[in-house]
Amino acid sequence: MAVWLETLKRSVRLNQYSIRTEQTYLEAVKRFLVFTGPVPAAELGEAQVKRYLEYLAVERNVSASTQNQAFSALLYFFKKVLGRELGNLSETARAKRGRKLPEVLSREEVRKVLAFTEGTPGLMLRLVYGAGLRLMECIRLRVKEVDFERSVIFVRDGKGGKDRVVMLPESLREALRGQRERLDELWRQDRAAELDGVWLPGAMEVKSPNLGKELGWQWFFPAKGASVDPRSGKKRRHHVHDNTLHKAVKVAVERAGITKTVSCHTLRHSFATHLLEAGTDIRTVQDLLGHSSVETTQIYTHVMQKPGIGVQSPLDA
Question: How many domains are there within the chain?
Answer without folding.
Answer: 2
